[in-house]
Amino acid sequence: MTGNRQLATHMKHLKSISILGCGWLGKPLAVELIKAGYPVSGSTTQENKLRELEPLGINPFLIKFDPLFSGSEAPGFFQTDTLIITIPPKRKSGQTDIYVEQIRNVVEEVLKSNIQKVLFISATSVYADGDRVVSETDADPNSYLVHAENILQQQAKFKTTVIRLGGLVGPGRNPGRFLAGKKDVQGGDHPVNIIHQRDCIGIIKTILDKQVWGEVFNACADHHPTRKEFYSAASALMKLEVPQFSDVDVSKNKVVNGVKVKTQLNYNFVYPDPIEMLGSL
Question: Which of 31, 40, 84, 270 is deepest in the core (most CB within 10 A)?
Fold first, then answer.
């Protein structure tokens, strides 16, 4: 009985979480957090997807920032302890300013609430290419993602932790299709900075469990094979035509250092080697 009482007490003190953007990452993240006992609300921008969330135990909300806010019962969504923002970045020309404005409008809604903690999913594209190893302090100050991060981190009412994810692979995102059959592909000798969906979720859960706030973390697998090695292996495993890489290449790239997430969070990657992770897809 003692063990049951301790478990009940632990469950009672778990904080509620709202996930803004229950898509490729947000939805499976919500499922895992619910399994861990967290009460979870989740948003979608499509009304027909509301029916997909409720059977999973997610309290569903229809919410859009386009870039202005619109939605139904938004106050309920923002009545939570922790907000996780997984809105996919807009990288196309002319859309980056819209993304920054989206985040600015999200903050306006957060400031109306009692939210104390925000977890923002960013990307390693904050680092300019330059044939170098980059850590969390090396972000390009002109990056629109850095502008979005700053909007959140500069708020005094709540604390924000930022996770900069590498290239995403996992269910529904098999990199074997990305370059299959292409010719004269540039950047064959560039290192890849990849992370599996399962490790994305694992890192997020670790931050929530340990309550680590006000930090910035890179998140990508330990090993960095070349693009040629990685995408050739990925295509071959799917029995697709492997890409052909150019012998002439003057482009630059970087290696993203993810040591901080291991040392400060004591997190061990499920898939530390991008080539080995291909077997799980």
Answer: 84
